[in-house]
Amino acid sequence: MNQALSAILSRHDKNGVSVKNRLAVAPMTRVTATPAGVPTATMRDYYARFAKGGFGLVITEGLYTDKAFSQGYRNQPGITDDEQAQGWSAVTRDAHEQGTLVFAQLMHAGALSQGNPYRDHTAAPSAVKPAGKQMGFYHGEGDYADPVAMTEEQIAEAIDGFVQSALRAVRVAGFDGIEIHGANGYLLDQFLTAHTNVREDRWGGSTQGRVSLLVEVLKAVKAALGGEVPVGIRISQGKVNDFTNKWPGREADAAIIFGALAEAGADFIHVTEFEAWQPAFEGGSHSLVALARRHAPDVTIIANGSLHSLERAADILQHGADIVALGRGALANPDLPHLLEKGEALREFDGAILGPIADVKDSELAIELVR
Q: Is 46 an active-site residue?
């Protein structure tokens, strides 16, 4: 076994993140739940194939956290009540039989909600209309709605939604960890982003003010769980409706954001970029993964972004990451760890499986896990 493969298949154990190898399945919204947000048998089969295929960690698609403003998409799974939570128990049980951990990603869509039956309008840090168009492969159509600015009471309710959902995820569904979705343009990222957060209260203004809601959610979830499982957060610069966004403060912003999350007790930080190895800022030399490692030295770092080749994955482990999370690579190769062990070629990703609607298709579940 060569050195690169040995590194990828080695164990990792830090801050409660204890996995049999360095390969994780990245969170990917697949809109395959029931209209009531309950996981389906198709979803159980979909997640089970990654565990059977040898991944050390699976991170779920974003689970909405309250029956108010959080749901983003039709047929998105939630974890707002015991029925939804109990639906995930079969998923976690299947994974545990294979020695695979499963983390629940908790998500509040905020202004990017495009399919929420609980409210007839959207809420965000500020009344700023999102850029871009709704995503058609998630049942969206046309412009995003104009959101209303959240009140202090609504912010408190959103924090409590994360807390109660985390408790259900661990104590009812049996998840092994909690990932708070602070990336990709959803609510917490809207608070972090200067042009979507023009508040003048404690939740806005400077980078320190704008990161404060992410810090408060992280602290609240950790306090509620009391160390039962690792709790972390996903962070990005780009957004689903604005892929090219960059933090205006560049490395100084990175220092504030990652430093604040580390100080708040994050057990892991999941950094996602389109190409994770590229410099985070034009003219710079450090990737966002490397900056996360610099400013959160004692935190497990998960890297995501076009890392599905053996060489890319091994390289990012040398440059700050502890775990590599795969999206397209995992969809094409749910048995990727086993393929690497056997030295077999990887399948090419077929983007057709994500259209016209990005739900789980029979063709995916038909991929054989043994060659």
A: no
